[in-house]
Each structure stands twice: as structure tokens, then as C-alpha cells.
Design goal:
Elements (H helix, E strand, L loop, with lengths): L14 E4 L3 H17 L17 E3 L10 H22 L3 H4 L2 E12 L5 E4 L6 E8 L2 E2 L9 E3 L26 E3 L5 E6 L4 E3 L4 E2 L2 E12 L5
Antiparallel strand pairs: 1-9, 2-3, 3-12, 4-10, 5-9, 5-12, 6-11, 7-8, 7-10
Length: 222
């Protein structure tokens, strides 16, 4: 008797890419991010919701509206990558992709030693992304320092584990996935996905720029 066919009927799409010239762009973004942090309360998110601690600075959420050239270059890169993901996953042709109107929140995080972000997702958005400006200088022997951790939405199935399912690897297993961000790396994922940032144990600053997006489909391309 032939073995049964095993198919992945459910999956979570992620996208990973790198900016083609990260050293140049990130140098400018770093200057911008630290200047924003230097503004203190004037440039900070006035209504923080997600659990975080004092070593984390979070800017206002209209970052991609700032005219700074480096921010606008990063926005174009993020939108190019995000629209490519949406087009591919939905089977949209170029004309349809060009009709998508993007609404967004975007912000910068500057994290120093001990800073972390609690478990959360991003309601009222469909896609989220994180761009790494500077991962910081992690202490030796601290593999989880500053890691972006993404929770498997199948995690409730781990309420019962026996020998028949305990060792199933991804993509069918219930493992939590961890990403050690690299300078210039962009990670795109569905906004519903629970995630957190582990405590940054290192020197310097861990600097990231994140965004949430939601969309409408206009009658014609802008």
C-alpha cells in the first residue's frame, strides 16, 4: 500500500530581502534616528501601547511622512518590496498592483542595553515590516540578544504533546522562529502574527525602522 501524501494546507508567508547599498543608506538613517531620539518627548510616540522598558526609544508613527531624503529612500525600498510580495501572493498583475493605495504607520526604535519589546501584534493592518539600520554589537555568548521572535499561530496545538508529534520539524511543527537581524535586512510578515524583541545584550544601539500597512484598491492607477 502506498504511503499517504502529506501536504502543507496552511502556511504563513514571510519575505526577507536586503537593501542593495545598506552602508550608505544606514549611515544616514542612523544620524536621523539618533537625532529623533535626541528630541526626547517632542519626537516620541505619545501613546505607547506595547510593553517595553526605558532603554527603548520609540518615535512618532508618521515617520514615512518626514521629508528626510534617507527616510524617503527607505520608504521607496520598503514599498517596492512589499508590493512585490502582495502582487506575487495575490496573483495581481502590474496594473492591479499600481492601483493599490497604501496607508501606513511607521516609526523608529533605538534600543540600548537591556531594552526589549513585549509580545504583541498590529491590529487594523494587513502587513508589517522591520528594517534593520544597525543590529548593535551583541555580547559574546548571547545568541538571543535583540532577536525578533515570531510566534507560530499553531502554538495552541502544543497544549498536548506526545511522541507522535513532539519532534515534527517546521513547517508542520509548533516551533517559535527567531530572526537575528542584519544591517540592511528587511523582514515582511502578516500583521496578525504575534512577535516580540528579546532583550538587547550588547554595546551601542540596536536601531530598526518598522511599519504597518493597510490598503484599498482604487479604480485607476495614481
Amino acid at each position: 500500500m502506498p504511503a499517504p501524501e502529506i501536504l502543507p494546507l496552511f502556511a504563513v508567508p514571510f519575505a526577507f530581502s536586503h537593501h542593495p547599498d545598506p552602508a550608505r543608506l544606514n549611515a544616514a538613517l542612523r544620524v536621523f534616528a539618533l537625532a529623533q531620539e535626541g528630541r526626547g518627548v517632542a519626537g516620541a510616540n505619545p501613546r505607547p501601547l506595547t510593553q517595553r522598558n526605558a532603554p527603548v526609544y520609540e518615535s512618532h508613527f508618521d515617520l514615512f511622512r518626514d521629508p528626510d531624503p534617507a527616510i524617503q529612500e527607505l520608504k521607496r525600498h520598503c514599498w517596492d518590496q512589499l508590493l512585490a510580495v502582495i502582487g506575487q501572493l495575490n496573483g495581481y498583475d502590474l496594473a492591479t498592483v499600481q492601483r493599490l493605495q497604501i496607508y501606513n504607520d511607521a516609526w523608529v526604535h533605538v534600543t540600548r542595553r537591556g531594552g526589549y519589546f513585549g509580545l504583541h501584534n498590529h491590529p487594523n493592518a494587513s502587513w508589517s515590516g522591520v528594517y534593520c539600520v544597525d543590529p548593535g554589537q551583541h555580547d559574546a555568548g548571547k545568541p538571543e540578544s535583540g532577536a525578533l521572535t515570531l510566534v507560530n499561530p499553531m502554538l495552541p496545538s502544543a497544549m498536548y504533546l506526545d511522541a507522535a508529534i513532539a519532534r515534527i520539524p517546521p513547517p508542520f511543527g509548533v516551533q517559535i522562529r527567531s530572526v537575528k537581524l542584519q544591517a540592511g535586512q528587511l523582514v515582511i510578515f502578516p500583521s496578525y502574527l504575534l512577535h516580540d524583541v528579546k532583550p538587547f545584550e550588547g554595546e551601542g544601539e540596536r536601531i530598526t525602522i518598522a511599519f504597518n500597512c493597510w490598503f484599498t484598491l482604487s479604480e485607476s492607477a495614481p
